[in-house]
Amino acid sequence: MKISEKITQFFKYVFLWIITLITLIPFLWIWMSSFKSNKEILTSALALPTEFSFEGYIDAFNTAPLLNYYMNSIIVVVTSTLLGVFLVGMAAYVIARFDFKFKNIIFVTLSVSLLLPITALIYPIYSVIRGLGLYDTRSGLILVNIGLGLPTTLYILRSYFLSIPKELEEAAYIDGSGFFRTYLSIMIPIAKPGFATAAVLQFILGWNEFLFALVITDSKRVRTVPLAINYFLSQFSFDYRALFAAIVIITIPSIIAFVALQEQVVDSLAAGSVKG
Amino acid sequence: MDKKRNLYIAIFLMPAIIIFVIIYLIPVYNVITTSFLEWNLFVGDKTFIGLDNYINAFTNDSLFMASLKNTLIWVVLQGTFHVGLGTMVALFLADKPKMWKFMRVSYMLPNMISGAAFAIILLNIYNPEIGLINQFISFLGVENFQQNWFFDTSTAFFAVTMTWLPYAGLVAILVLAEIMSIPTSLYEAAAIAGATKFQQKLYVTLPLLKNIIGTCVLISATSMLKEFEHIYLTTNGGPGSTTLSLPLYLYKTALIENNYAYANTMGTILVIIGFLIIFVINKLFVLGHSDR
Amino acid sequence: MYNRLIKLTLVIALCCSVVLAGCSSTDKESNTDTSKGTTTTKSTDDKKSAEEPVSILFPTFQVGVNSSAPLLTENLRLFEEQYGDKINVQLEEIPGDQAYVDKMKILLSAGDLPDLVYAGGYNLLDLALAKDQVVDLTAYLEADPEWKESFTEDDLAFNSRDGKYYGVPEEKQPIGYFYNKELFAQVGIEGPAKTWDEFFEQCEVLLEAGIIPVSMDSADSGWVTNLWLNSMVATSGPEGLEFANAYYPKDFNNPAFIDGMSKIQMMYQKYTTVDAVGGKYEHAANNFLSGKTAMIANGPWMIADFNDSDKTEEGFADKVGSAIYPGNGLYDAPMYGYFVASKDEAKADATVEFLKFITDEEAQLRGLDMIGRIPASPSIELTDEIKAKYPLLAELIEASAAVEYRYPTTQSAWYPNVVDRFSSEAPALATGDITPEEFAERMTETAEKN
User: Is C20 in Cβ contact with A218 (below 8 Å)?
Assistant: First the structure.
């Protein structure tokens, strides 16, 4: 290897590690703080804990109905991720691949969802969910989550479908393969990296969605994990340690989902399913 | 055949359209129509006042103008700097350096922590006394550079802008997934033609990333038209209106002042700006066309 | 080929419906609680009463780390014991004060307010009255003199409009300030200051000895800072007192307010911690709890923290003294309380029954004993036992007897958008980017939007 190339290599590594540190520090800080006492957190934010205490974790489970919310979140978020990516993916596919009447109008209209401020959504969504009889149900939350994820999923999947060589599909159609079949057995596998990424984003969005989880539910039976965080912060009272412990517990599923889904991206590459 | 094809297209579009109708149709209608009214959510009367809200916003409301300016700057920064950084990281990661999987997960971490939690972290990192940044500065021995980053008028805007950097990981992940799906045969061909790795990236990879980079620019830029949680929970738009963004001002107008008509006026303006952004980006990146 | 396609569609449709149905069936199962409520009311109308309990919906933010949470849990347990067969209280836990207000506003605008609503501090009462969703409590209070007498006339008047009672409070909240006796003794200060001049002299003495005098903040609503501000305004003279006692002021361009703000500006610059500018309540509280600052203005709910070993060192409570403000002032104003928003009579009756249970003298005594909450009733006296349990509370109540000037907190007296503007403008004032006059101008501008 030439010297100049080694130097570029070196700087590339330094660059990547600096960014790794910047993104890792917040999480490490929360994780470390979850073992400290409140007074340590607020007085010497960066010091290591003087003694490791798991009380924060115990308090977290005692103060908020964490387990309960956790189970609800898993049901709601997994369902809305699978359904959302599949259903919106269908629209993204035809928009990316076909020309038809009103295509531009439909796409532009759907794009509004990318731009509407949340405050404009609160009251109408509350009324619609109430009207559909979905108030305080998991189905209502699933529906809203899919809706909130619609713009990003649509744009990302459309972009992936656009990048897939047309010949593949045409070959399938010539072989006599039908519409659904081509989508399912040819397009989805090829766009797997795109689906995996869209699914991650939909998952994270649903997992952290606070406002509608509050507004369209009222009982512990259906409420989800983002609401748990608020149990540790009241106007004149706080428990940072338990809060941080709760955040650590809450963030883990997102990390697992991400790692698992990103493996899909690599797998599909290794399997060599994409050959131009 | 054509009829059948159209039927399938309709079936494929249907779920997304139904979801759109349930979740977004009424809000869109509301936002646009009520922006011409004088209307407070709790006092029932609605009076039609034409363009008064718009005129008021542009001529009479210094907070609106300040927040509009901030928002536009942030939109541009997000669409360029942010996406550039993410793309660069993705290109580096694509070579699969040591521990690249670990790096990939850590780049995504800020996106996984809820906004409320991230705001608390940011406040502590920027804290003038115990915060990481000022401690680091004092470690370097240049105490003069210590600042109350979030709350000093001269540094607040910069400090808030920096807080979005960790989110560039999202762009990196999106671009990386696309790079992963580029057929290796294309590189092989380039290598046979004698292209160096760098040249391969420049002439093979980048052009193929046009669609996803365009999409990332679009998503990042328009996210600035919606996001307000971080600012709300850290600087709250202050000091003064230094870091006030249009979505945050809109949120305050709606939920603190209960002035729905005026909030929706700003909402309509945001939607118009958003469409302009989408239009420009589509033109720049020639999005929407398969090019392979 | 076509067949497979149809099969596939069916499978997908089935999957979707199974998932959705699965969710909604579990939902429905446990949803019966809600529907029970309505069926019961219908049957009571048909005079088939008392078969099933009336169900009332009660959302509350008194959960999690909120200092009232243990009391509410106990109240609910006792109520269930005594009235469980007649009234079923469905609790909706809404952690976080802001989340509570946001949700109530949404329910309010949709006409779906729950049976019992807490209006304290956020003035939801007038919004609900404008929408005609509040139950008139006058008859209920007249019918039960004992309940009515557990509130002062002032409190009741504050919760009435046009001669009708709409709400009752559950407590009193006198707010003075706390000081660190040990730090005071170190620099030879004998006790809390009687006048503001003396107060600033004390600050100077503390500062010279290397002790930071006061805890301050600016984030959220700038709560701790505002407590100093309004006290200075209220004790500055008749005009100041009038302004401090005015609800929803629109004009902040007056000498008392501007003078108060210039003192606040000086305090930010000289007498408080560096992180006060932009700091949250937590930081201000911690600076006092860790012995870094000598004084903090705050209400009696903070007393519990002085004994919390997770937040401060052992024995800190013994070092703390409680005081009224210089110039002889104290936050002591009537408070908003709960109002009833039931949609039919049976539910309203049941809700009032529950409201009585958590606000009558017995409940107030329970609150005093359990969490040191100060009773709203004028006739409850502190027993020696309580005095021994909450010495700081006793000290505050004793001092409050001689207080000359009483006024409400800015959080309850100002428009919410003004409170918010205060918080985002305060850092600019602290760094000297704007003058107190400009600050007052901006507050006025915001207030006039209402």
Answer: no
- Tell me if B9 and A275 make a contact (CB, 8 A cut-off): no
The pLDDT, as a whole number, for residue C25 is 40
Q: What is the mean pLDDT of each run of 10 residues along chain A (276 residues)?
A: 82 92 90 91 83 90 93 96 95 91 90 89 92 95 96 93 82 77 85 90 94 94 93 88 94 92 70 43
Is residue B224 within 8 A of residue B161, CB to CB? The reply is no
Nearest-neighbour CA in chain B from C433: distance (Å): 8
User: Distances from the Cα of C71 to the Cαs of A126, C78, C147, in angstroms?
Assistant: 32, 11, 20
Chain centroid to CA B44 = 35
Cβ contacts of C105 on chain B, cutoff 8 Å:
41, 255, 258
**3-state secondary structure (DSSP) of residue A234:** strand
The pairing of strands C329-331 and C405-407 is parallel
Three-state DSSP class for residue A35: coil
Distance from CA of C138 to the nearest CA of A (A): 30
Give residue-wise pLDDT tens across range C335-366. Answer: 899 999 999 999 999 999 999 999 999 999 99
Which residues in A lie closer than 8 A to residue B251 (C-beta atoms)? 117-119
Asked if residues C306 and C320 have their Cβ atoms less than 8 Å apart, the reply is: yes
Tokens 């199962």 sit on residue: C29
The token duo for C294 is 């000598």
**What are the structure tokens assigned to B201, written together?**
């990236």
The DSSP secondary-structure symbol of A112 reads G
> Which 103-142 residues of chain C touch chain A by CB within 8 A?
103, 106, 109-110, 112
CA distance C75 to C354: 10
Distance CA(C242)–CA(C257), nearest Å, equals: 11
Interface mutation vs chain A, best among B81, B112, B268, most A CBs within 10 Å = B112
Strands (E), chain B: 37-39, 46-48
CB < 8 Å to C131, chain B: 42, 44
Q: What is the mean pLDDT of residues C55-81?
A: 95
Q: Quote the minimal CA–CA distance from B128 to chain C in Å.
A: 6
Tokens of A276: 């131009």
- Among A residues 121-150, those touching chain C with beta carbons less than 8 Å apart: 122-123, 126-127, 130, 134, 136-139, 142
On the question of a cis peptide bond just before residue B27, with omega within 30 degrees of 0, the verdict is no
**Residue in A43, A215, A242 closest to C106 by CB:** A215
Write a three-state SS string for chain C.
CHHHHHHHHHHHHHHHHHHHHHHHHHHHHHHHHHHHHHHHHHHHHCCCCCCCCEEEEEEECCCCCCCCHHHHHHHHHHHHHHHCCCEEEEEEECCCHHHHHHHHHHHHHCCCCCCEEECCCCCHHHHHHHCCCCCCCHHHHHHCHHHHCCCCHHHHHHCEECCEECEECCCECCEEEEEEHHHHHHCCCCCCCCCHHHHHHHHHHHHHCCCEEECCCCCCCCHHHHHHHHHHHHCCCHHHHHHHHCCCCCCCCCHHHHHHHHHHHHHHHHHECHHHCCCCHHHHHHHHHCCCEEEEEECHHHHHHHCCCCCCCCCHHHHEEEECECCCEEECCCCCCEEECCCCHHHHHHHHHHHHHHHCHHHHHHHHHHHCCECCCCCCCCCHHHHHHCHHHHHHHHHHCCCCEEECCHHHHCCHHHHHHHHHHHHHHHCCCCCHHHHHHHHHHHHCCC
> Are the CB atoms for B133 and B125 separated by under 8 Å?
yes
Closest CA to B117 of C216, A232, C280, A258: A232
Q: Does C108 touch chain B (CB under 8 A)?
A: yes
Angular region, A137: left φ>0, alpha ψ -120 to 50, beta rest: beta
Chains with 3 or more CB pairs under 8 A to chain C:
A, B
